[in-house]
Design goal:
Blueprint (H helix, E strand, L loop, with lengths): L3 H14 L3 H17 L3 H4 L15 E2 L2 E2 L2 H25 L4 H18 L3 E6 L5 E4 H19 L3 H10 L6 H16 L3 E3 L16 E9 L2 E5 L5 E2 L3
Parallel strand pairs: 4-5
Antiparallel strand pairs: 1-2, 3-4, 3-6, 6-7, 7-8
The chain binds zinc ion.
Zinc ion binds next to loops.
Length: 234
Amino acid sequence: MITYFHVIKALEYLLDQAGELQWRDWLRADIELWQSENDASHHLNAYGGMGSLNDLWISTWNGRVLSESQKSWINETLSLFRHLAFQTAQCLKKKNGGVFSRIAVNKVLRTARGNLHLDGWRCLNCGYLETQVDGVERFLAKEVLPGEISRAKTESDLISIVEMGFSSQLSEIQKMREQVNAQVVESGITVTERNVWMRPCPHCGSNNTEVCHWLRIRRRFALVVKPLGIRFPG
Ligand SMILES: [Zn+2]
């Protein structure tokens, strides 16, 4: 089971590679404070308010601009690591923090699995459905990352997970990507490279479009309909 210390070490590595030097130095201070005084309070100050660590979005790596799919992976990884670091740091303030930390890690991973959905757009006029290449990639990252993190035991295991985003041609992941893409198409959803709002609808021209989400149920993507409920396309 990973600990607060493993997560902040991996987070420091991620921020360093991303060239986010201000936040990397913040994490270095967290690491020193933990090593000298077993104190996680400085890390908790990184969250909340405008311009906090929660607002960080990574777009470069080793000085290079990331591709859209790499951005999806690395920002999903950042998001999970942030949750893990925050939750475990909070637990460490409490008595018997070690036990609570384990519960906190499981809770973060369970929530991440529970939030596994595909994002996209739909036209309320003609029913046209669309998702983007990076939306599919985000779905894939959300599907893969919690399992990998739950198997991690050390900070180097977590760092390997960060690196997975850059070997996304790994045969296993490539196979999963092809499966997800095929399921998306079979569910009647078009995959595009769009990086702006889908308005108007490219099919009928109507401006009556909205953001939507799908859950994957038995290899099909079903639309989540408000207030509650799902609907299979077609
Ligand atoms: Zn339409």
